[in-house]
């Protein structure tokens, strides 16, 4: 939709089934005992679908506002705890962040108002539609209220961060404060959950505890992510590339690779080179995949990752981009290439060292 791919995480199917179950087996039969089971189930399914459509509308509005300010949005994913918009980069200024953040809760409030309006205006003959509208109105308002809790990375936390950012001009301080509040709220939820479990409402307790745990870890992660991003931005691969990359011949067997290269040097990654041309990389990960008694019979060319299947970077690539590629590809190193020639390697370790050096200097 609007150039944004909409994805369903497998955990979404769990919550979708639970919501249908809770509505058609519990809520509707209790509140409307005169309904037949078929009506309760139909109403339950329709209500769940509209509920997740509302959630999608909330996320879509965040994404559309971001797009309007020139920030690309990759995807919206619905999962067990709701929805996330994968917005490719952080907003450039406080005002943009504020607008992107409020767009979602505002959408939920408007939807809540529309559903409640419908419930209020419908004549008694339409009691099924009215009942569905009432529940949807209530859940949308709840969604807006919950998301406006001022703990980062919830929408309310983003609003808070944008206000502190705007007042102090310091994004980092704003993020630290907003995400500390986010962690605090997460822990409060966890304690609330434990309390509920001990007072007998264990299903609500576990649920609240899980949401709290998710919030607390998301808050901590997004702060670390931002610190890394800020330290790396504006710096190039050439500043940290390791050029002393050891190369090995393609017909070297794994036993010799281990005994003559890995053990004496402590390195984890080697370039496989024939006549000055880099064919691929071989890392500890591939070596571990070869059975011990096969190691004398397998050569590196058989297990290496060939160059054309590896993501590569140039010496002038931005370090923040490199971190993104490492995370997305789930690898620990990338070859640094100039005109098809490998000139060195950039590793996750290089990046982390660079960040801690940067931290020490700015402290
Ligand atoms: Zn939101």
Question: What is the β-strand count?
Answer: 9
Shape: elongated
Query: Oligomerization state of this entry?
Result: single chain
Radius of gyration: 27 Å
Helix content: 55-70%
Average of the residue pLDDT scores: 85
- What letter string, H or E per element, gives the SSE order? EHHEEHHHHHEHEEHHEHEEH
Widest sheet, order of strands: 4-5-6-7
Poorly predicted runs are none
Helix and strand arrangement:
Elements: E1 5-8, H1 10-31, H2 37-68, E2 73-79, E3 82-87, H3 94-121, H4 127-147, H5 155-168, H6 171-198, H7 202-232, E4 247-248, H8 254-265, E5 269-274, E6 277-283, H9 284-288, H10 300-303, E7 305-306, H11 319-329, E8 333-338, E9 341-347, H12 348-362
Parallel strand pairs: 1-2, 4-5
Antiparallel strand pairs: 2-3, 5-6, 6-7, 8-9
Helix pairs in contact: 1-2, 2-3, 2-4, 3-4, 3-5, 5-6, 6-7
The structure holds zinc ion.
